[in-house]
Write a structure and sequence with these properties.
Elements: H1 19-41, H2 53-82, H3 89-105, H4 112-136, H5 143-164, H6 168-201, H7 212-230, H8 239-259, H9 268-278, H10 280-291, H11 298-324, H12 334-353, H13 359-384
Helix pairs in contact: 1-2, 1-11, 1-13, 2-4, 2-6, 2-11, 3-4, 4-5, 5-6, 6-7, 6-9, 6-11, 7-8, 8-10, 9-11, 9-12, 10-11, 11-12, 11-13, 12-13
């Protein structure tokens, strides 16, 4: 087992490791972005970011919020994988400042090329920070992680070029391809940590049975889907795409069955992960039905992915990683159990209630905002303070 070297860390705990600023900044930004988007939809106020509110909403919830959490998690995890100290101090401050500037750039009077440069520079720099320790230690199992980050960056560039060209089709393809690449990242990371966390949380010390065929099939299917969006195969329904989406839904379902243990339902840090991952199944099935000719709005499947799976897994992972990497017991207060449940309610309201009444959208925003507020209320002091065990990080 690799032992992390003890090195000098910044005096401010916030800049000790990547999860701290990006978990805090990403969750706070998601809360603000949700309130801004819902406020514009109901006509409380008007905002005119570059490209319009729809383009802003699509881009920012993925390449602003989700990507920030992914970056924070990976920049922290790579230290454990490699034994090489993760990004900290001034380099971490600079990377976070670039991300923050990207969020503000939509509302600043900047030339279009400068906005694109600011927005598009973040993920390549994250990939570079990950590549150095992974390549140095020759961690071949983690090479796909670097590739996925670069592919998400490519999708962001496709979206931004579509924005420059005033081409909604390019923007849509870039965002949806990027979204399913994040789903691929969830499949890779989830396949590693969910069964591991489950067994450890239940006191099972034996290693998780290896099923490389299932992991590879999930990875191949998950990476194939974004490519079909880039190629335009999802612009209209297609029977072959129905088969691909249905097959991926089955693979995710098999994974969940193999990971399941009835004891996990007594532990919020476990059931929150499993329920979030489970939303990948209706997301895939919804698009399988649409491609098969069933008159279903594909936006519902997209929101099953973004609200249920992506946001659900993000909040659950932030809750656990923040405790583990600050030396605290892996126990959450009852308020965080409510936060996990509220994310599930937000997804149900957006996917099941919203098609029948506008009230569903309002409930979804209300539930998701409450969940993010609960996370910030409990974890703000944790993320700002040093580890309780005196270790670096």
């Amino acid at each position: 087992m690799l032992v992390q070297p003890i090195t000098a860390r910044p005096r401010q705990a916030l800049w000790a490791l990547g999860f701290r600023p990006f978990f805090l900044g990403g969750s706070l930004f998601a809360l603000v972005a949700l309130l801004l988007w819902s406020g514009v939809l109901v006509g409380i106020y008007e905002l005119e970011p570059a490209g319009g509110m729809l383009a802003w909403h699509r881009h920012e919830m993925l390449f602003g919020f989700a990507v920030a959490i992914v970056a924070g998690f990976l920049l922290t995890a790579v230290q454990n994988w490699s034994g090489i100290p993760g990004l900290s101090g001034r380099p971490l401050q600079g990377l976070f400042l670039l991300w923050l500037l990207g969020r503000a750039s939509w509302f600043l009077p900047l030339p279009a090329w400068l906005l694109v440069l600011i927005e598009g520079a973040f993920l390549p720099l994250v990939a570079l920070a990950l590549a150095r320790p992974i390549i140095q230690r020759r961690l071949r199992n983690n090479y796909p992680i670097i590739g996925l980050v670069l592919l998400i960056a490519a999708c962001q560039w496709l979206t931004l070029i579509g924005w420059l060209r005033d081409d909604p089709l390019w923007q849509r393809r870039g965002v949806l391809a990027g979204l399913w690449l994040v789903a691929a990242m969830m499949s890779v990371i989830g396949g590693r940590v969910i069964p591991f966390f489950t067994r450890r949380g239940l006191g099972i010390m034996s290693p998780t049975p290896a099923r490389p065929w299932l992991d590879r099939a999930c990875l191949l299917g998950s990476v194939a889907l974004p490519l079909t969006y880039v190629l335009g195969l999802n612009d209209a329904s297609h029977p072959l795409m129905a088969v691909l989406f249905a097959a991926l839904a089955v693979l995710h379902g098999v994974r969940l069955v193999l990971w399941h243990d009835r004891g996990l339902w007594h532990m919020p840090l476990l059931w929150s992960l499993h329920l979030a991952y489970a939303w990948l199944i209706p997301a895939c099935l919804g698009l399988a039905l649409w491609h098969a000719g069933v008159p279903i709005n594909p936006s519902l499947a997209a929101h099953a992915l973004t609200v249920g799976a992506m946001t659900g897994l993000i909040v659950a992972m932030m809750a656990r990683v923040s405790l583990g990497h600050t030396g605290r017991p892996l126990q959450v207060p009852r308020s965080m159990s409510w936060a996990f449940a509220l994310i599930q309610l937000a997804a149900l309201a957006r996917v099941i209630v919203a098609p029948f009444t506008p009230l569903g959208l309002g409930l979804s925003v209300l539930f998701a905002s409450a969940a993010l507020l609960l996370f910030l209320w409990h974890y703000l002091p944790i993320l700002l303070r040093a580890r309780v065990d005196g270790m670096p990080g």
